[in-house]
Amino acid sequence: MAASAALYLAVVAILAAAAAASNITEILDAHPEYSDFNTLLSQTKLADEINSREPITVLALTNGELSSITGKYPLSVVKNILALHVLLDYFDATKLHKISEGSVLSTTLYQTTGNAEGNIGFVNITDLRGGKVGFGSGVPGSPLDSIFTKSVQQVPYNMSVLEVSKAIAPSAVLTAPAPSASDVNITGLLDKAGCKTFAALIASTGVLKVYQSAVENGLTIFAPNDEAFKAAGVPDLTKLSNADVVSILQYHALASYTPIGTLKQTKVKISTLATNGAAKYDLGITTVGDSVTLDTGVDTSRVASTVLDTTPLCIYTIDNLLLPEELFGTAPSPAPALSPAPAAEAPAPESASAPAPESADAPSPLSSPPAPAVATPGSSPSEAPVADSQSHTSDHSDGAVESPALMKMAIAVSLSVLVTVVLS
After folding, report:
1. What is the mean pLDDT of residues 59-84?
2. What is the DSSP string of 10-79?
3. Residue 421 has pLDDT above 50, yes or no
4. 274: nearest Cα among 214, 194, 225
5. Is the pLDDT of residue 87 over 60?
6. pLDDT digit string (tens) for 231-290?
7. 57: which strand partners?
8. Does position 369 have pLDDT exceeding 50, yes or no?
9. Other residues' Cβ atoms within 10 Å of the Cβ of residue 232
10. What is the mean pLDDT of residues 154-170?
11. Where are the strands (E) in 167-311, listed by range?
């Protein structure tokens, strides 16, 4: 029994260590020279996005290098610059020096925001002569003046952290106007996103003013699309009291900036704007792959799309109206099966075998947008190889190996077998 308990604790420790190894915050905590970089990743919620993706490479900046940016630009601009330092592919020192044709364009996290025009959301990686590797903006003509300095830490084929000498900061990102959250036309964005009914409701009930007063401190809105109000089983809101309608609308918002990466990492129920004292009005969150589902206890809804993600405001569309348990009760439970009658009184009824539900395929992991074929910038150092850039997805023969998910499954199966053998 003691041996079994010891083995159990060892297995738990191994799994905990594996989880921490792929956590960017935990990795950078061990390196004080990146403390400012680490703090900003957490502050902008980019850390959650990084931890929710595989494979990924983070180009870390030292505190000294980062200070040249943080003191000059607002947080929204700094966040965009940091997002350019997160590559949606795995690169270690070996792979950097084996880039096919010497140059590659890699998709960054900034490309996924929908705010990147042209090639601005890509990073050009070029294996220079003399053993150096240069990084620069994917915009043609950009210099490759951010040099690979050293490897910080790798979780093979899942996460890699590399140090670079200089921030990748194209002028188009630095000069982009920093929008003020208070100036955002919330109803206008909702109308364009196909949520006109929801937009009209928050305006007519005064909930829009509640949203606007909360936005500066962080706000996330889950807006049901117009079809959600026409679905079967949706209550007639005109028959509810004004106070109940207001509670429902406030239930569709969080008093915090919560980008999709943070939602994916959330394991506990979260409060909403309707939360008040004993009335919980909270939401559960379930993540399968890249699909995020909200659970009220009465119904569920998928987070369908991102309308806006600009610190400190997030707006999403969802498929269903969220019905709070406090107003509509819990979801009905299946009726209990009848017990067979005693054999002495009547034959026991034959049990009808219910058809097994068809299994639904889990959403596939988010694929990075393909990088366009673009020639190596003309202003790159003369010693850089002149070659067309390839897609951000590298050739498996140049360092990419087994799927991270397959490796995790193999580890889990091995541990399960080991525990079974010992316990038997």
Report:
1. 93
2. HHHHHHHHHHHHT-HHHHHHT-GGGHHHHHHHHHTTHHHHHHT-SSEEEEE--HHHHHHHHTTS-HHHHH
3. no
4. 214
5. yes
6. 999 999 999 999 999 999 999 999 999 999 999 999 999 999 999 877 799 999 999 988
7. 87, 160
8. no
9. 4
10. 97
11. 219-224, 253-254, 284-288, 291-295, 300-310
Contact yes or no for 320/299 (Cβ under 8 A):
yes
DSSP designation for 328: H
- Angle ∠(149,152,156) on CA atoms, nearest 5: 120
Measure the CA–CA gap between 377 and 388, rounded to whole angstroms.
Answer: 10
CA distance linking residue 162 with residue 151, whole number of Å: 5
Angle (CA) 129 132 133, round 5°: 110
Determine the Cα–Cα distance for residues 40 and 78; give it in Å rounded to an integer.
Answer: 9
Query: DSSP 3-state assignment of 285?
Result: strand
Q: Percentage of the chain surpassing pLDDT 90? A: 61
Q: Which tokens is 239 given?
A: 């028959």
Question: For the whole model, what pTM was predicted?
Answer: 0.63
Per the CB < 8 A criterion, the answer to whether 148 and 164 are in contact is yes
Give per-residue pLDDT as tens, 301-326.
999 999 998 888 999 999 999 999 99
Helix (H) or strand (E) holding 134: strand 133-137
CA gap 372, 105 in Å, rounded: 8
Alpha carbon 322 to its chain centroid, in Å, reads 22
State residue 187 phi and psi, 5-degree precision: -65, -35
Residue in the block written with tokens 């498996």: 396
Q: Residue written as tokens 């979780």?
A: 155
Alpha carbon distance 193, 190 (integer Å) = 5
- Which amino acid is located at 65 in the chain? E
Give the contacts of 334 (CB within 8 A, at least 6 positions apart): none
- Pull the structure tokens for residue 204: 């007519």
Render the burial of 91-113: b for 16+ CB within 10 Å, e for the rest.
bbeebbeebeebbbbbbbbbbbb
The four Cα atoms 322, 327, 330, 332 give a dihedral, to 10 degrees, of -90
Element (H, E) at 422: helix 404-423
Tell me the C-alpha distance between 141 and 124, whole Å.
11
Nearest CA among 272, 269, 270, 267 for reference residue 255: 272
Mean residue pLDDT of the chain comes to 80
